[in-house]
Amino acid sequence: MELSEAVRRRAERAPGPRRRSRAGLLIVAVGALMVVVYAAAFLGVMRLEGHDFSWISAVYWTITTMSTLGYGDVTFESDLGRLLSIIVLLSGVVYMLVLLPFFVIQYVVTPWLDRRRMARTPRKVPALLRDHVLLVGSDAVTQAFAARAERSRVPAVLVVEDPVEAGLLHDQGRQVVVGPLDSAQTYRNAGADRARLVASTLSDTANTNVAFTVRQVSGDVPVAVTASKPVSTDVLSLAGSDHVLELGAVLGREMAGRVLGTTGRVHRIGSFGETIIAEAAARGTALVGLTLEQAIGELRCCVRILALLRKGRLRPMKPESTITESTVLILAGEAPELAAYDEQFQVHEQSEDPVIILGGGRVGRSASRELTAQGLPNTIVEQLPGRVENSYSALEGTASYRVIDGDAADQRILRRAGLESASAVLVTPRDDDLNVYLTLFCRRLRPELQVVSRATYERNVATLYRAGADGVLSYATIGATDLWNHAGLSHRVLVAEGNELFLVPRPSSLVRRSVRDAEVHRRTGCHIVAVGDEDGTLSYDTESIPSAPGKLLLLGDRHAERLFRQTYLKHRRFRSGDRAGAAR
């Protein structure tokens, strides 16, 4: 569970002061009532046995019995009295050993611990801290950014309003500043005027207020915010935001860009300067059946094969590795070179098969717009009638998409949408459980179909791959990567969920080693795919790592990146001058 979600649910479960007082009074009243009733019963049974006791003695006997002390100086002689003793004893155990400790922990110990945590949560960053990134709020995107910053040794400070949430983040080792998000003093305490970026991922209205407030502190610091609705983009820009990220639209475009089609054509997924990073499916091309060495020999252009993917997983880059129908090639080259690759390998006489989009929300509609712009026919399956047509009023005259109303989990609906002839399925709902179900469902109906699925939380990415997804993209990773690149940090390109291309300073310990050094991959899990200059320009005409200062382009997941930095860059910390490297 993401931290913000856990805190929200905890807050929902946690009683407020008024409710806490009522519960405490109720527990005390129940205890007092039990003592009065049992004391009265004690006096009644004792009179039946011919004994006369005072109320003080009755209360004394009740409390000693309920608390299991049982001094034995007052006892019953009859079975009725012994039965009453058993009842008082058992109810006393439940009350004093269960209810009272719960009351003490819930209403005394826990608030005391929360107050201690609040008291030690930082309200201000050190005066010497600069070139840091301020992350306003704590959701999946900011958590992913903060984790990436920790691996890269980039200072990142989370600004949150809830002291309890701030305490939990502080306990996890995150840099935190707690304070009202609509107060300029909070951002002064967080050093907004010295930051390289302020990023806010709250609601559109809250982001507007944050942008206005930050601008009171500094008119120069870049401000990046997320937007849920397209209409909010202009308002957020007017409020002072330099960069507005529509996560739903970006995720939809990224998912559409991962549709490989059936003709082997190149799809751009990112760039480093003039070098374009692209992917191309081997299916249906002359590359199928060749080894990697043979494929490189077949290339008539200067395109470089950076990696081989299959089912979203990296495959060994060995000369004898075979390219199959399910292989995806990660390519690098300039635009003319990639065009030459298309000319050589794309199956021009074959038209693209349609794409099915499950879900007509913001992500699904954005994916459909992107596919429509590329001239790819697509079909949206949406359960709510009329939802998509209203959103597509601006696309009058286009005829490359159609809408099917119905449940995407119904096999008959999918067949009406054209599942049998589709080239790919995009699974776009917000619910990860539903996405796992739909991914597995489509994979079983058509095992050879390309399935690209959306994940809201990073923890479900591995599950979606196991369910049969060829590619998975998550809100957290897409948002964190966009904000990271906008902050001017080491540029990154998301290849597949969990695998990124990223630049690092060139370690002196790797000088004159082969670019394809197997030991680096064995020790860290990172693949060295290219060598770059100080400005991030990639070069592909070298087989060994030169001694001149520069950068390395690596491919790997977050664990591999952490191992590489610990192994080869452990003495190097982030410097403000490093930003000049690769952001494009």
UniProtKB/TrEMBL annotation:
<dbReference type="InterPro" id="IPR013099">
    <property type="entry name" value="K_chnl_dom"/>
</dbReference>
<dbReference type="GO" id="GO:0005886">
    <property type="term" value="C:plasma membrane"/>
</dbReference>
<keyword id="KW-0472">Membrane</keyword>
<dbReference type="Pfam" id="PF02254">
    <property type="entry name" value="TrkA_N"/>
</dbReference>
<keyword id="KW-0812">Transmembrane</keyword>
<protein>
    <submittedName>
        <fullName>Potassium transporter</fullName>
    </submittedName>
</protein>
<feature type="transmembrane region" description="Helical">
    <location>
        <begin position="53"/>
        <end position="71"/>
    </location>
</feature>
<keyword id="KW-1133">Transmembrane helix</keyword>
<feature type="transmembrane region" description="Helical">
    <location>
        <begin position="21"/>
        <end position="41"/>
    </location>
</feature>
<dbReference type="InterPro" id="IPR050721">
    <property type="entry name" value="Trk_Ktr_HKT_K-transport"/>
</dbReference>
<dbReference type="InterPro" id="IPR003148">
    <property type="entry name" value="RCK_N"/>
</dbReference>
<dbReference type="GO" id="GO:0006813">
    <property type="term" value="P:potassium ion transport"/>
</dbReference>
<feature type="domain" description="RCK N-terminal">
    <location>
        <begin position="352"/>
        <end position="473"/>
    </location>
</feature>
<dbReference type="Pfam" id="PF07885">
    <property type="entry name" value="Ion_trans_2"/>
</dbReference>
<feature type="domain" description="RCK N-terminal">
    <location>
        <begin position="130"/>
        <end position="245"/>
    </location>
</feature>
<dbReference type="InterPro" id="IPR036291">
    <property type="entry name" value="NAD(P)-bd_dom_sf"/>
</dbReference>
<feature type="transmembrane region" description="Helical">
    <location>
        <begin position="83"/>
        <end position="109"/>
    </location>
</feature>
<dbReference type="InterPro" id="IPR036721">
    <property type="entry name" value="RCK_C_sf"/>
</dbReference>
